[in-house]
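Entry — protein

Goal — fold tokens:
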Amino acid sequence: MEPVKIRKADSSDAETILRFVTELATYEKAEHEVKATLSD
């Protein structure tokens, strides 16, 4: 198993981060609270 690498996010990570946030909001039944889009 490779060690975990922690780095600062950059603009190329935006789609993945938004997906994580949206999936978490859906799990919490709060998807209506996500206002962000990739164009933001």
Notes: The chain has one domain: 10-40.
